[in-house]
């Protein structure tokens, strides 16, 4: 059974940093692209970033470019999101998701971790 | 402001058929496949339809998807109380090289 478990969320001040983790199990992690998707309180879903199976390709949504970094440790079966220069508008539940590429879709999701950016 | 446009709400009575629309552009729906996700209250999203009209195993055939041009729709027949949830359409966007979502449609079963 595919399992994705996020951790690392919490309260951080504007301008601060946070690192989210996603522990994967139940599948061969190194064979899959992975993504982060977020959801602000009471709002819809927003794709944040993707990373290729081997970590060689990364893409980001414009509002987080230059501030967030997605990474993947295939030896540890873990996905990460390093978030710097955090803003109030980054407040959201962050979901880790497995990305199928052909055809494309997010086929498994974690339970999410809440990031709150506030002074 | 979401890239894909969905109605904010929809409703129906048990047993009815409801449809939810999703409108995009040539850089997303017009050139890529569409997925639909169901988010029950307080839970993570779950894929309901992928590749425009394919159901993952375990998804009842009451749920169906279609796409035409730059629009897509999700149909739910034989509406049940447990279908009350938020529904999101999504497409790959060539210009972003990433996924775009609709703003979500809250389905109420009356």
Explain what you see.
Chain A is 0% helix and 55% strand. With 119 residues, chain A is mostly beta strands. In chain A, the strands form 2 sheets. In chain A, strands 2, 4, 5, 6, 9, 10 and 11 form a 7-stranded mixed beta sheet that branches. A 4-stranded antiparallel beta sheet of chain A has the order 1-3-8-7, with no helix packed on it. Chain B has 110 residues and is mostly beta strands. Chain B is 0% helix and 45% strand. Chain B is built from no helices and 9 strands. In chain B, the strands form 2 sheets. In chain B, strands 1, 3, 4, 7, 8 and 9 form a 6-stranded mixed beta sheet that branches. A 3-stranded antiparallel beta sheet of chain B has the order 2-6-5, with no helix packed on it.
List the helices and strands and how they pair.
The complex is a heterodimer of chains A (119) and B (110).
Chain A: E1 3-7, E2 10-12, E3 18-25, E4 33-39, E5 45-51, E6 58-60, E7 68-73, E8 78-83, E9 92-101, E10 104-109, E11 113-117
Parallel strand pairs in A: 2-11
Antiparallel strand pairs in A: 1-3, 3-8, 4-5, 4-9, 5-6, 7-8, 9-10, 9-11
Chain B: E1 9-12, E2 18-23, E3 34-39, E4 46-49, E5 63-68, E6 71-76, E7 85-93, E8 98-101, E9 105-109
Parallel strand pairs in B: 1-9
Antiparallel strand pairs in B: 2-6, 3-4, 3-7, 5-6, 7-8, 7-9
Portion in helices of chain A: under 10%
Regions of chain B with pLDDT < 50 over 5+ consecutive residues? none
Residues in β-strands, percent of chain A: over 45%
Strand content of chain B: over 45%
**What's the number of extended β-strand segments of chain B?**
9
Helix-strand makeup class of chain A: mainly beta
Structural class of chain B: mainly beta
Count of separate DSSP helical elements of chain B: 0
The largest inter-chain interface, given as chain pair and residues per side, is: A-B, 23 and 27 residues
Shape of chain A: globular
Largest sheet of chain A: 7 strands, mixed
| Biggest sheet overview of chain B | 6 strands, mixed
Overall mean pLDDT of chain A = 97
Q: List the secondary-structure elements of chain A in sequence, H or E.
A: EEEEEEEEEEE
Task: Name the poorly predicted regions of chain A.
Answer: none
Distance between the termini of chain B: 28 Å
Overall spatial form of chain B? globular
Radius of gyration over C-alpha positions of chain A, nearest whole angstrom: 13 Å
């Amino acid at each position: 059974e595919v399992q994705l478990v996020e951790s690392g969320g919490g309260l951080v001040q504007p301008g601060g940093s946070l690192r989210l983790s996603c522990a994967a199990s139940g599948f061969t992690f190194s064979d899959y692209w992975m993504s982060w998707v977020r959801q602000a309180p009471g709002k819809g879903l927003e794709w944040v970033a993707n990373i290729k199976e081997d970590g060689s390709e990364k893409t980001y949504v414009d509002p987080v470019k230059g501030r967030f970094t997605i990474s993947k440790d295939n030896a540890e079966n873990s996905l990460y999101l390093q978030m710097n220069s955090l803003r109030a508008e980054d407040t959201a539940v962050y979901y880790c998701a497995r990305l199928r590429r052909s055809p494309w879709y997010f086929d498994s999701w974690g339970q999410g971790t809440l990031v709150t950016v506030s002074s | 402001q979401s890239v894909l446009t969905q109605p904010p709400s929809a409703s129906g009575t048990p047993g009815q058929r409801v449809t939810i629309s999703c409108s995009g552009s040539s850089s997303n729906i017009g050139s890529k496949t569409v997925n639909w996700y169901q988010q029950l209250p307080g839970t993570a999203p779950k894929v309901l339809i992928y590749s425009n009209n394919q159901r993952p195993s375990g998804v009842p055939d009451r749920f169906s998807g279609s796409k035409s041009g730059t629009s897509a729709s999700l149909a739910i027949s034989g509406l049940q109380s447990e279908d009350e949830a938020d529904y999101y359409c999504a497409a790959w966007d060539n210009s972003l090289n990433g996924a775009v979502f609709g703003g979500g449609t809250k389905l109420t079963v009356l």
